[in-house]
Amino acid sequence: MNYRASNACFVLLLLVTLSLRSNSEQVLAQESQLSSKGNFTVVSYYHARTGCHPVAVLSVSIGAQPPEVLTSQVAIKGISDKPVTALKLRWEVYDRKVGLKKAKAPCDATPEAADIYLSGTTPLIQLGRLAKGEIYNISTNPLRINLPAAKTIFVEQPLIAWDEVKPLTVDGTRGTFKGDYAAVLYVSEVHFEDGTTWEGIVK
User: Is the entire prediction scored with pTM above 0.85?
Assistant: First the structure.
């Protein structure tokens, strides 16, 4: 092999090596980004069950069936002595540690200031008549998890839609959250059978 051919082969080999290295660095960067992805969870306001709210959220579903849904179903329980005819559910997204702390805050706690990344409230949901101690399911149709309940109330829209939390993701897809988040879901407004109303917050 003459000098020129040898030199040309060396230059070609160098270019291929640099190209492979660049591609390798891009793959490593992508893997690093994916390995540091956050997560998202939905929790209920635990202390509502002890009587500080007239209606408690006992359980919350989270999933992707159908794809536009994040939360499609909750189970609620009547705590108040007064029958409830309608309510609104509200959710607020916090940093995960903050959200889990707020979910467990006592009823008499002083509300702590915290960043709310996203929030939403359902339309008024008509229940008929929820009495003290009764458990109702509130869900989109069909019911995904058939929990024991006195009644199931079907709603038109997901309680939390996927599109509502997309801004917290890297590219709009599940599994690419920018951080660790917790959405606290609770009953924020109650209409009683006697015509009175109640509004509440998490602490």
Answer: no
> 107-116: long-range contacts (C-beta < 8 A, 24 or more apart)?
107/47, 107/50, 107/51, 107/52, 107/203, 108/52, 109/203, 110/203, 111/201, 111/202, 111/203, 112/203, 116/92
Bridge-based pairing of strands 84-95 and 125-130 is antiparallel
Rounded to the nearest angstrom, the gap between the alpha carbon of residue 61 and the centroid of all alpha carbons in its chain is: 9
CB 42 within 8 A of CB 57: no
Can you give the three-state secondary structure of 62-127, one letter per residue? CCCCCCCEEECEEEEEECCCCCEEEEEEEEEEEEHHHHHHHHCCCCCCCCCCCCCCEEEECCCEEE
Closest C-alpha to 187, from 84, 41, 67: 84
**Nearest by Cα to 155 from 73, 60, 61:** 73
More confident residue, 28 or 5: 5
Q: CA angle, corner 55, sides to 136 and 77, nearest 5?
A: 35
